[in-house]
Fold Enoyl-CoA hydratase family protein.
Amino acid sequence: MSTEKTLVRSSHECGITTLTLDSPANRNALSAALVADLSDALTACGKDDAVRAVVLTHTGNTFSAGADLKSPPPPEALVALLRQIVALDRPVVARIAGHVRAGGLGLLGACDISAASDAASFAFTEVRIGVAPAVISLPLLPRTDPRAVARYYLTGERFDAAEAVRIGLLTTAGDDVDAALAPVLDGLRRSSPQGLTETKRLLTAKVLEAFDRDAADLSALSARLFSSAQASEGMTAFLERRDPAWVL
């Protein structure tokens, strides 16, 4: 991997590589640079036979605040990153010790297993700035409760870790996220590399079908919405910490 400073730190211990989102200045928002660095780190994991599984975590009190509105990645780049997580032939485990918003929830949907602390909170905030959770729906919709997702997609409401477990966004939650993850990581270390690879393929086949079928259309939708007048108003209002013009 490159020796230059990146926005994703990597460490390895006993078969598990931990990738840490490390962009605290923007609450680990999905900038073009962070998306590229995370993709590079995942590629390196896929080439390393010592990697049994990958843990994706974060610095600070926010796993990811969603798309970086000042330097967003192209929709196609985010689609490629999400598909890379789903298609990686090692399990990817999300470790959440903070809050997750909008596009950051796409990362959770792409991971195979996800755990959070009870203090974490979640929200699909896209609708409140005039866009839609388009490309992140590729991994999320096949894996989450449709009635619950309809509510949270349409309202942008905040919900807690217990609700995230109930609707299928999280696998588990607890007061101590590392204690909640301990049996998961122990199980992965006890599993054969071949067994993990082939089992993950079984689990992700339907999700990858959604990518192959819908990625182009949803990328186009995302690009169209982000270039719209309502999105411009919504993003400006967000940055200016005021309500957008449509709020009643």
